[in-house]
């Protein structure tokens, strides 16, 4: 089954949603205690990944060791304005420190200037570094300045550059499904703040959800599952 089709499979048990969540711990005002609490929540909630600021990665790798939660971080974040060399150094430094998933941003100014070769060269190098290290690369194509044609071009570049996930706004999932097809998986980077929105995004093809309020959404998911009738109830015993 291809990644997009797999993502659209109906969610039936708690883990079906929990493992799709990237718990975002990137707020600039987070203290060490805030990050630790977020990492504990990711483990307790059975989430797929916890994404921390680069300066918190060593701590996250230690704290998540022995758990199924992947330690993630960012390179070239939040608007991709660093030089290619700096981005590559950031990515390789994160890999050396034990990151399992890296989220990056194409250079927004270059993309708006239609310097597509710059974008592709940069992502190709970063993608190769991640592929060789067995690290998942996620590229954010979600910014209010991007027109639909630029989003399409950016997604096509991602398809050629060893990118695993393309992060999109929830409103762009239909476009992403059409362009990315079975080459890249889709992640929702914005537009999901409730359980219903999360379930709708998954039904639309999202394999990952970037959430800051992941704990609250998963609590709502537990309640909804508990309220569902037992399919075996009322069946006569043999």
Radius of gyration: 18 Å
Tell the overall outline: globular
What portion of the residues fall into strands of 2 or more residues? 15-25%
Count of extended strands: 8
Major beta sheet, strand line-up: 1-2-3-4-5-6-7-8
The count of helical stretches stands at 11
Q: Per CATH, which architecture? A: Alpha-Beta Barrel
Structural class: alpha/beta
* The CATH homology group name: Aldolase class I
Major sheet size, sense and barrel closure: 8 strands, parallel, barrel
Low-confidence stretches: 1-8
Indicate the CATH class.
Alpha Beta
What's the SSE pattern? HHEHEHEHEHHEHEHEHEH
Describe the structure.
It is a single chain. Helices cover 47% and strands 16% of the residues. With 238 residues, the protein is α/β, with parallel strands linked by helices. The protein has one domain: Aldolase class I (TIM Barrel). An 8-stranded parallel barrel has the order 1-2-3-4-5-6-7-8, surrounded by 6 helices. The longest helix is centred in the middle third of the chain and has 18 residues, at 116-133. It is globular and about 55 Å long. The chain starts with a helix and ends in an 11-residue tail after the last helix. 43% of the residues are buried.
List the helices and strands and how they pair.
Blueprint: H1 3-7, H2 14-18, E1 21-25, H3 32-44, E2 49-52, H4 57-64, E3 70-75, H5 84-97, E4 101-104, H6 108-112, H7 116-133, E5 136-140, H8 148-160, E6 165-169, H9 173-180, E7 185-190, H10 195-203, E8 208-211, H11 214-227
Parallel strand pairs: 1-2, 1-8, 2-3, 3-4, 4-5, 5-6, 6-7, 7-8
Helix pairs in contact: 3-4, 5-7, 7-8, 8-9
